[in-house]
Specification:
It is globular, with a radius of gyration of 18 Å. It contains twelve helices and two strands. Helix content is 76%, strand content 2%. It is mainly α. Bound molecules: farnesyl diphosphate and magnesium ion.
């Protein structure tokens, strides 16, 4: 189903013109870990749509989706091990641990309207920032470059990406995003647009996410949008990108 393949693109960009086998292996590995995490995420979220197509979970069931995610995840490590770069294996395994920690944090905070912006940023750093960071570090290291601040660059770009992804969950439309609108609310995932909007609209602050169905989730999305929270979160994402570029 395609995908933007941003993480391997970052690997290659950070590797520079001398990118070779190690960069290609790193690019494959980060994209496969990413795909594995999405296939598993769609099982956990019982998501119907991804990239405009039925998820593996929806088309083939949780058993096959779980097994396919496992296969993608283990193949990512095989590609790295076959390249013989122990540092790359170490970076990707530490990243995978953080992805899982981020997902656990998301489960722990589900339906909790007391969640703070700091909680949100910690979770997003683990579940998304970390893999972008690894992509940049692996790319740079593959051509023998000093990794220096490149990891922080990737981390900030990853955070910005997650903020915009969370805006799109509220804004849709599904024809553009390839995903159902309001899925985060229905899953009990408290994202920055909701946290910001709840500060403006007491009805949103009092919302019990457990009671939502598709219809009331769509109404909640409209209310969030009406507070101007989406523009604020988009602006925060742009600032993160500016900070990433500034170093
Ligand atoms: C998509 O984000 C999901 C993630 C960024 C990470 C999911 C991580 C796991 C399932 C655990 C670790 C898995 C492995 C294989 C190490 P999202 O849910 O915010 O976005 P979405 O709207 O695209 O679903
Ligand atoms: Mg999800």
């Amino acid at each position: 189903a395609g995908g933007k393949r941003m993480r391997p693109m970052l690997v290659l960009l950070c590797a520079g013109p001398d990118a070779g086998d190690a960069a290609v292996r790193a690019g494959i590995a980060v994209e496969m870990v990413h795909m594995a995490s999405l296939v598993h995420d769609d099982v956990l979220d019982r998501a119907p749509l991804r990239r405009g197509q039925p998820t593996v979970f929806a088309s083939s069931g949780r058993e096959r989706a779980t097994s396919l995610g496992d296969r993608l995840f283990s193949t990512a490590f095989k590609v790295l091990v076959d390249g013989g770069d122990a540092d790359a294996v170490s970076e990707v395994s530490a990243t995978a641990v953080d992805l899982a920690r981020g997902e656990l944090k998301q489960r722990e905070g589900a339906f909790n309207m007391e969640l703070t912006e700091a909680d949100y940023f910690e979770r997003c750093g683990l579940k998304t920032g970390r893999l972008f960071e690894a992509a940049c570090v692996l790319g740079r290291a593959s051509t023998g470059g000093e990794t220096g601040p490149i990891g922080q660059f990737g981390h900030r770009i990853g955070l910005a990406f997650q903020l915009l992804d969370d805006v799109l969950d509220i804004a849709g439309p599904p024809e553009r995003t390839g995903k159902a609108r309001g899925t985060d609310l229905l899953d009990g995932t408290v994202t920055l647009p909701l946290i910001v909007a709840a500060g403006f609209d007491p009805a949103l602050a009092a919302l019990d996410l457990r009671t939502l169905d598709e219809e009331t989730a769509a109404i909640a999305c409209d209310r969030i949008e009406a507070t101007g929270a989406l523009e604020q979160v988009r602006a925060r994402a742009i600032s993160l990108i500016d900070e990433a570029k500034a170093g």
